Amino acid sequence: MAAGDTGLIELEIDGLIHRYIRTTATREVGDGTYLVYNYDGEVAPDGGSSGAEDAQDRVASPLAAGQATELPTGPGDLSGSRS
């Protein structure tokens, strides 16, 4: 495959779209010089990411919940406690 000056390459593998983004780097291989493309991740053809959780299935993080109770409640409240 010759990418030429393409800034983005998308390949469909096993039903997912894998994305590669061109960098300014090059690599010498054999007698040729080739552009380097970084892997940018995968998405389903409908736009969803593989392995992404559904919002309704999320469980609140105990760490995040604990930190939320330490946040100021309004203007001027810098004590970090909620009343």
Summarize the structure in words.
This protein is mainly beta. It has a domain at 1-45. It is 8% helix and 39% strand. The chain has one helix spanning 62-68; strands at 8-13, 16-29, 32-43.
In short:
The protein is mostly beta strands.
Main pleated-sheet profile: 3 strands, antiparallel
- Helix coverage percent of residues? under 10%
The radius of gyration computed from the alpha-carbon positions, rounded to a whole number of angstroms, is 23 Å
Structural classification: mainly beta
β-strand number: 3
Order of helices and strands: EEEH
Gap between N and C termini, in Å? 63 Å
> What is the global morphology?
elongated
Contiguous low-pLDDT stretches (5 residues minimum) are: 55-62
| Binned strand content | 35-45%
Read across the widest sheet, the strand sequence of neighbours is 1-2-3
Average predicted confidence as pLDDT: 71
Number of helices: 1
Write the layout of secondary structure elements.
Elements: E1 8-13, E2 16-29, E3 32-43, H1 62-68
Antiparallel strand pairs: 1-2, 2-3
